[in-house]
Design goal:
heterodimer, A: about 350 residues, alpha/beta, Rossmann fold, 2 domains, 9-stranded mixed sheet, 4-stranded antiparallel sheet, 13 strands, about 25% strand, B: about 325 residues, 8-stranded mixed sheet, 12 strands, globular
């Protein structure tokens, strides 16, 4: 495994409701992103996948949220507790971000060019003229030829796909080493989705950045990732290479998710549905959070929270997940009492 | 062999005819001459990207927003010729389920009241309404005892079950399902899809299934129509569409779909091929994006024609495409 760029350990975040109720949104996230890799964080709504990304970006609203425990190290620097001024330097500069709905993040009253220039002047200290040249180049880089004309337009004058390209141009404008992409293609049609995914992968190669890709869509994730982590109820339940997770998923939740997806080859058969619903963060089941929906659950699953262990070694005997995964070889982590039984 | 339950003939839905407000929108044909037939007992899939007119088509063929041209025959009766009361009588047999159950259920009405509303409009008595509501809820896996509850007390998946129950309580023959699982979590989608499969068998229903999710349509549908800019550009059995697509748009669409079994996506920067120009006055509407269109394509609007075996395509040069692979 290449050098670890981002390392999250034991991250716990809770929200306090107005009525004093507490919801445990993240219950100890462990996640490593290696330099240059596309690492997908997959989960359903409310699983905590976006919240994890928000914590890395330092955009968690405190209060009502509270970081209870854990660590987020980025290039060796602890981000939790870092002064806001320092966080801001990282965000947009070394960590870029792209979201599902670019309209929400682009200022509707400001020409696209001004918005790109802002970051270039602020983070890179370019003059306005230099920044304007660079902005034009960036737009060409993201597949908007004639970028200069786009610079003068307002966001509403652009199509959804063009807005997402502008957003990506802004995200990579300062040459980040990590791009956090939260459902960047979910709102797009399939033909456009493919274009944007190809673009992100190309930029990853050219700029040598890693991508933390947050998504609910396993088929998309299958197409782009080197590594996949599956999140359920605020905990990583499985993490491994694309090949391992799709060919030999270890966790019953991952297995069930993969079996529940409709595809042409399953015509004429019933889908394997997962019973029940995703639990609310204020009512997380005891033990393994998936146990009420798991067809294999035994007594132990109801009582004891399973630890994330590494099953990549010989014979499938679990070993402790190494503190620094860059020192071990390939890992395939799962948090389930039943793996290998 | 089962006969047609729904025949749509040259259906047109045109908006903003006068052009007083906006010249650009004047005479915009969201649905532009669509024809197809749905066989009783089939699942007919209608796919296309956002803005292609698939939802407008659904609303027009149910006469929720009456079409501005063409006709719709339900079990042989032309809906256009019916009085309002006559239409109401027919519509109970062709129900629609929408994408967003929150928009479809009145938050201030109990489930029982929501389910009874349509039946009350048909003059069905109170006792009968309650019996049917309970029956329909049972069919979709919601305890009839929960009928007094309000929508917010249910999860998204349960709410979608309830809107399906409401449609079923009307005793439909045809269900139009407009993106019925797109708002649901992955783990819930399969529950609803399995439910739809069961209901279809138990109640001998016919489905018109509208979706942007090609994997889902390929899994469910017997026949598939591909829509582009208000037109059907290709129509065939699911195996025909999947294994021998003839229209370049169909090819592109299905080649773009991420699949669990697919190859890794190849990195590349390609220009935005979104064609934002307004529809041309003449010629094939896909010509600008097609890349292989020639002068003939720019001049002639291709008609949907049968290439054999009930596989229809609206393209002047589909054979050429086939050879190109």
């Amino acid at each position: 495994m290449a050098e670890t760029l981002l390392s999250i350990r034991g991250l716990k975040v809770s929200f306090r409701g107005r009525d004093g109720s507490e919801s445990r949104a993240l219950r100890g996230i462990d996640l490593d992103v290696a330099r240059g890799e596309v690492h997908s964080l997959v989960g359903e709504s409310g699983s905590g996948k976006t919240l994890t990304a928000v914590c890395v970006l330092g955009l968690l609203p405190v209060p009502p949220a509270r970081i209870e425990a854990g660590s987020i190290r980025f290039q060796g620097v602890e981000l939790i507790g870092l002064p806001e001024a320092e966080r801001r330097k990282l965000r947009g500069r070394r960590i870029g971000m792209v979201f599902q709905e670019p309209s929400k993040y682009l200022n509707p009253a400001m020409r696209v060019g001004e918005q790109i220039l802002e970051a270039l002047v602020l983070h890179l200290g370019l003059t306005r003229n230099e920044a304007r040249l660079r902005a034009g180049e960036l737009l060409e880089l993201v597949g908007l030829p004639g970028g200069r004309r786009v610079l003068r337009r307002y966001p509403h004058e652009l199509s959804g796909g063009m807005r997402q390209r502008v957003m990506i141009a802004m995200a990579v404008s300062c040459d980040p080493v990590l791009l956090i992409a939260d459902e960047p293609t979910t709102a797009l049609d399939v033909t456009l989705q493919r274009q944007i995914l190809r673009l992100l992968l190309e930029l990853r190669e050219r700029l040598g950045m890693a991508i933390l890709f947050v998504s609910h869509d396993l088929a998309v994730v299958h197409g782009i990732s080197e590594r996949i982590s599956v999140i359920y109820c605020g905990k990583i339940v499985e993490s491994g290479s694309r090949e391992r997770v799709f060919a030999r998923p270890l966790h019953p939740y991952t297995q069930a998710l993969l079996a529940s997806i409709p595809q042409a080859s399953r015509r004429g058969t019933r889908l394997r549905a997962i019973p029940g619903t995703v639990p609310d963060a204020s009512h997380v089941p005891a033990g393994c959070a998936f146990h009420p929906r798991c067809p294999l659950a035994v007594e132990r699953c109801r009582e004891e929270v399973p630890r994330l262990l590494d099953y990549a070694g010989n014979g499938g005997t679990p070993r402790e997940a190494a503190a620094d995964r860059s020192e071990t070889g390939e890992t395939h982590l799962a948090a389930c009492h039943l793996v290998g039984t | 062999m089962a006969g047609p339950i729904l025949e749509v003939r040259n259906l047109v839905k045109q908006f903003g005819g006068s052009g007083l407000v906006s010249r650009a929108r004047a005479g915009l044909k969201a649905v532009d001459g669509v024809s197809f037939t749905v066989t009783a007992g089939d699942t007919f899939g209608l796919v296309g990207e956002s803005g292609c007119g698939k939802t407008t088509l659904a609303r027009a063929l149910l006469y929720l927003d009456p079409p501005t041209g063409g006709e719709v025959l339900f079990q042989g009766t032309a809906l256009g010729g019916l009085s309002r009361a006559g239409l109401r009588g027919f519509r109970r047999h062709m129900q629609i389920v929408f994408q967003d159950p929150n928009g479809a259920l009145d938050p201030k009405m109990s489930i029982r009241a929501s389910l009874g509303e349509g039946l009350a409009n048909l003059g069905v008595g109170r006792e009968e309404r309650q019996r049917r509501a309970a029956e329909a809820l049972e069919l979709v896996g919601i305890q009839p005892a929960h009928a007094e509850r309000y929508p917010h007390e249910f999860s998204g998946g349960q709410k979608q079950r309830i809107t399906i129950a409401r449609a079923l309580s009307m005793d439909p023959r045809l269900l139009v399902l407009d993106e019925p699982v797109s708002n649901l979590d992955v783990s819930i989608q399969a529950q609803i899809i399995n439910l739809l499969l069961d209901l279809k068998n138990r109640l001998a229903l016919t489905y018109l299934f509208i979706s942007h999710d090609l994997n889902l349509v390929a899994y469910l549908a017997d026949r598939i129509a591909v829509m582009f800019r208000g037109r059907i550009v290709e129509l065939g059995s699911t195996p025909q569409i999947l294994s021998e697509p003839l229209h370049p748009y169909t090819r592109r669409l299905f080649a773009s779909v991420p699949r669990l079994t697919g190859e890794r996506i190849v990195p590349r920067i390609e220009g935005d091929v979104e064609d934002e120009s307004p529809s041309r006055a003449s010629g094939c509407r896909y010509a600008a994006r097609c890349g292989r269109g020639d002068l003939a394509c720019a001049a002639n609007d291709p008609e949907l024609h049968d290439t054999g075996g009930g596989h229809l395509v609206a393209c002047l040069q589909p054979e050429k495409i086939n050879q190109g692979g």
